[in-house]
Amino acid sequence: MAGQGKQTSAERRKERQAAARAEAAKKRRKQRIQVLGGGGALVAVVAIVAIVVSLVHNGGSNKKDNPNAVPSPAPTADQSGVPAGQFRCIYEDSPNPVAAGAKNVGKPPELAENATPQYATMATNHGTVEIELDAKAAPCAVNSFTFLASKGYFDNTTCHRLLDSSSDALTYAVLQCGDPTGTGRGGPGYKFADEALTGARYAKGVIAMANAGPNTNGSQFFMMFKDSSFDPSYTPFGKILSGVEVIEKIAKGGLELNPETQQNDVPKTKTTITKVTISSTPPKGIASSTAKPTSTPSSTAKPTPSSTAKPTPSSSAKPKS
After folding, report:
1. CA dist 139 to 29, 108, 144, 145, 231, Å?
2. Top-level CATH class of 27-66+93-279?
3. Of 2, 14, 61, 76, which residue is 20 to 30 A from 143 by alpha carbon distance?
């Protein structure tokens, strides 16, 4: 039985070839992870979530920046004695001071209208966006937005962040605005609680509050120009009636590097909100929205797309509230 148990030269050659193929495959997988995870032109779920974490953020250091950070508890307003058609809101001082260059216009009135329709006309250097505000579902967010608009808070401010990323069934496509400093760090000096999160959906045209964690809403907001796969963590407070194409045009201009965060999340097409005006009547020639609601009862809510898509509102871009 001479030679039994010994490999022939052909067998050794096949074994070496198999080992070489395995090593090459390993290198390809490693390279793919590095390219996709690095936030380059190709996008993976990991990269998308990392960018979303940075994008949808409205102030406050995150746990990475501040390991002792804890979610803000939701303040509860006493609604006793509040007239019909109104809702009492609590606007607390933000733990972070108003960033340099931000506008300090005070706090909104505590009584918010939640029955009277509200509409916002947002004029930009690329066109006009008409928005229907949902005061019934998110009275405190709408009250804050209309108050800031009435004080000229949003006038001549830039939209500082853009996300347009897709992978498999996950999509994040938003333009973020509302910071007078243009850095993503600015806010109005106050915060307020989340609203309308049960069954919240972020369909194309929805406008929602950016935040730095639960109950840290301020002035920054973001507008969806595609259906987006966010978890229900951001207060939806309105729908775009017309002008989504304005945001789509901005998105087509692409992204450039944010030198502070080292992420490609700055719109190349520089965008300025020149003025926001509020009205209780729909824009002329535009009917009130009949689109799907921004939130639905939890019993009918569709499941979140994926457990990997949990964009917690934290960022290396530091505070923004």
Report:
1. 49, 12, 9, 10, 21
2. mainly beta
3. 61
